[in-house]
Amino acid sequence: MAKKQEPTYAEAMAEIEKILARFRNDEMDVDSLAAEVRRATELIAWCRQRLHKAQEEVDKVLAADN
Question: ∠5-48-30 over CA atoms, to 5°?
Answer without folding.
Answer: 75
